[in-house]
């Protein structure tokens, strides 16, 4: 006499099948090192290109060779300032991204999609650097720069919290480390979010608040 599948057994079988499909879609850093490495390599490539594009805004205008070099350099001080600020935050974003991926055991499709969006925001930084250099007296240019940084910090936070909820973190990541990571990312995002309206009150001086954060971040990561 043939055995009938009970609803419980059918549900258990379906659950196992779903779990197996999820495991197949997961890119584990130990089981699929090449695939995991490609995601990291793509991320590092975007950061490298963003860093390279930052310096292109420093080109002297056409005809500068025939003028006073010192005066031409002084005239482009806003470009040098925007470059320094952007360099600081591209480097800071790379370090944060590197730290985040060092804590991941694996990635799935949704986390990969969020990472692509994160990299898209990083790719915007050379553009907002150009806006900041071209309009150094405009509060809107600082607000746009702050908005992009706030979005980068927010996506960083969302990726970490998603990985934590899905069990995608490595075994050495403790609850204390998770709390510090969440608080640091949230504080970064909120600081730049609040600096958007602040830019209309104090203008370029909002940069003084920004430049503190990369050093605060390094201090926090040293405590992890």
Features:
77% helix, 224 residues, single chain, two-stranded antiparallel sheet
Low-confidence stretches: 13-21
Give the neighbour order of strands across the main sheet.
1-2
- What is the strand content? under 5%
Report Rg: 23 Å
The overall pLDDT average reads: 85
Beta strands, count: 2
Helix content: over 70%
What is the count of helical runs? Answer: 9
Describe what this molecule looks like in 3D:
The chain is mainly α. It has one domain (28-223). The chain contains nine helices and two strands, in the order αβαααβααααα. The chain has a two-stranded antiparallel ribbon. Helix 4 (77-102) packs antiparallel against helix 5 (109-134), helix 4 (77-102) packs parallel to helix 6 and helix 7 (175-202) runs antiparallel to helix 9 (213-223). The N and C termini lie far apart (62 Å).
Gist of the model:
The chain has nine helices and two strands, in the order αβαααβααααα.
Indicate the topology:
Blueprint: H1 7-25, E1 27-28, H2 33-56, H3 69-75, H4 77-102, E2 106-107, H5 109-134, H6 139-165, H7 175-202, H8 207-210, H9 213-223
